[in-house]
TrEMBL record:
<keyword id="KW-0812">Transmembrane</keyword>
<keyword id="KW-0675">Receptor</keyword>
<keyword id="KW-0807">Transducer</keyword>
<keyword id="KW-0552">Olfaction</keyword>
<feature type="transmembrane region" description="Helical">
    <location>
        <begin position="96"/>
        <end position="118"/>
    </location>
</feature>
<feature type="transmembrane region" description="Helical">
    <location>
        <begin position="195"/>
        <end position="223"/>
    </location>
</feature>
<feature type="transmembrane region" description="Helical">
    <location>
        <begin position="23"/>
        <end position="46"/>
    </location>
</feature>
<keyword id="KW-0297">G-protein coupled receptor</keyword>
<protein>
    <recommendedName>
        <fullName>Olfactory receptor</fullName>
    </recommendedName>
</protein>
<dbReference type="Pfam" id="PF13853">
    <property type="entry name" value="7tm_4"/>
</dbReference>
<feature type="transmembrane region" description="Helical">
    <location>
        <begin position="139"/>
        <end position="160"/>
    </location>
</feature>
<comment type="function">
    <text>Putative odorant or sperm cell receptor.</text>
</comment>
<dbReference type="InterPro" id="IPR000276">
    <property type="entry name" value="GPCR_Rhodpsn"/>
</dbReference>
<keyword id="KW-0472">Membrane</keyword>
<feature type="transmembrane region" description="Helical">
    <location>
        <begin position="277"/>
        <end position="296"/>
    </location>
</feature>
<feature type="transmembrane region" description="Helical">
    <location>
        <begin position="58"/>
        <end position="76"/>
    </location>
</feature>
<comment type="similarity">
    <text>Belongs to the G-protein coupled receptor 1 family.</text>
</comment>
Amino acid sequence: MGNQTILVEFFLKGLSGYPRLELLFSVLVLIMYVVILLGNGTLILISVVDSHLHTPMYFFLGNLSFLDICYTTTSIPSTLVSFLSERKTISFTGCAVQVFLGFAMGTTECVLLGMMAFDRYVAVCNPLRYSTIMSKDSYVPMAAGSWIIGVVNSAVQTVFVVQLPFCRNNVINHFSCEILAVMKLACADISGNEFIMLVATTLFTLTPLFLIIISYALIIVSILKIHSSEGRSKVFSTCSAHLTVVIIFYGTILFMYMKSKSKEILNSDDVDATDKLISMFYGVVTPMMNPLIYSLRNKDVKEAVKYLLRRKVFDK
């Protein structure tokens, strides 16, 4: 009990001890953050301006782009400040806000990707009923529900974390206030928190994944029934961008989970630089790749961007 205290700030260890790597990484992260803002901002703009993109798929895509901007903005600016200055601390309140926003955005993205998979399933397997099933009265509440689930789930998790008693150790071995890294600093049994997180993960991460798997299994069956190779290619192209994003998103989560499990088996509590870079890949590279994937693999998006650029030049 003598070691228990009221913490007012945390120290973010990040890449302390690797000054050259910090400088290099800060430049790379800054460039990627600018690409994230430009790429996702462009997708949001064209999905609003171009009337041809006023469809459920692009409505979901606009939400995903806005989500990626919010998700990266919760952590990248503070990480850059930590890299480029001597200030590597964050207040307890600031850390709680970062935990809430990061967890909310992550949960929302999982649910939203599940909704997008259902949209692709209806488009491929029930094309004649698509406009009826995926009407505005359906896809707007689906997107709103994804945000509500993310916010509520994160609020519950964050409340349980901030109520934990913390000891004098305030060093978070991470770039930002990641929820598990913060929980490990508590001077109490966190098994209850871990159980709540397990239930939430099962509901809001694995359930959307099962929905995605089932949707694409049915889509593949439907594609195989198409006799012409050109028809199969055309149908698959409508799903390939979303499927690529899902593979990158869940693939990185699975890789991080397997890495952490292997470290537990080896009884290693230290998070090395490689693990932190993998975490940054999940938090930065994936949001940067999303607009590139949808732009390069989608003819409608390419045409909308060209139209927007032509209109800008013409206005000048």
